[in-house]
Amino acid sequence: MRKTDRIFVAGHRGMVGSAICRALAKAGYENVVTRSHKELDLLDPGAVRDFYVAEKPDVAVIAAARVGGIGANSAANAKFLYENEMIAMNTIWNAAEAGVKRLLFLGSTCIYPRMAPQPIPESALLTSELEKTNEGYALAKISGLKLCEFLRRERGLLYHSLMPTNLYGPGDNYDIVHGHVLPTLIRKFETMKDAVPLWGTGSAIREFLHVDDLASACLFALALENPPDLMNVGSGEEVTIRELAEAVKAATGSSAKIEWDSSKPDGTPRKLCDTSLIRSLGWKPEIGLEQGLEMTVASYRAEVESGTVRL
Ligand code: GFB
Question: What's the predicted TM-score (pTM) here?
Answer without folding.
Answer: 0.97
